[in-house]
């Protein structure tokens, strides 16, 4: 079952800097939800508050019925959460396949002793996980790179590898931070198809941070626009794109007045 994500009054402060102020919204199970806003609006910080990389100063984060603000990333994986990062951090000297397999650890059954002894059961599970990882790479157009060291791939392709790693966790809630940044146009189309297929086949709720408005318009059911750490508006992508407050936040008040 896809997860529901509920944020209520989430605030985040570093010293005197208010990074997020009273941000709240609900992402329904199975929705594709967009989080947009200008540079520095607080989008990545909000993802960090959901994924356990930051602890909100106040407010609550719920995944289904569980309150999870301040929980560790490993605990959140148990609630079905997986994410990708704006700046992917792969193990550069490991192969692409090994990097993807890191996402499967939380799903492997068996005891540490079984793994140390490499019992037939653990070897079978490992083999099945490798097959799944290769299948994900294939579906995302990266099968050719499976056995190359990650540092031989471009930044854009690292994002694809990270997506495969997140998908191997079989998430119920997936957070994608600028998945289209640095991708050529044709790859953006592949990404849109991938996310659509995820919703149709894998029963997962997806939250996407993206500056690529074509992708946001093509994929999302609903968006929240952040500006200076606050919610500017919530609605459809089309409503956001035509909202004067959003236009002003992106291009500045003077330019917005000139355009009017
Ligand atoms: N650990 C931190 N310590 C201090 N300030 C931080 C920290 N993390 C984020 N910030 C500040 O929070 C603000 C929001 O940053 P954030 O990276 O969340 O923005 P963003 O919306 O993701 O921007 P972009 O579109 O450029 O990725 C920035 O002013 C940033 O400097
Ligand atoms: Mg960011």
Provide an overview of this structure.
One of its GO terms (cellular component) is plasma membrane. GO terms for molecular function: ATP binding; ATP hydrolysis activity. This is ABC transporter ATP-binding protein. Keywords: ATP-binding, Nucleotide-binding, Transport. This protein is α/β, with parallel strands linked by helices and 260 residues long. The chain has two domains: 1-80 and 171-260, P-loop containing nucleotide triphosphate hydrolases (Rossmann fold), CATH 3.40.50.300; 92-169, no CATH class. Helices cover 41% and strands 23% of the residues. It contains eleven helices and ten strands. Residues 14, 17, 19, 37, 39-45, 86 line the site of adenosine-5'-triphosphate.
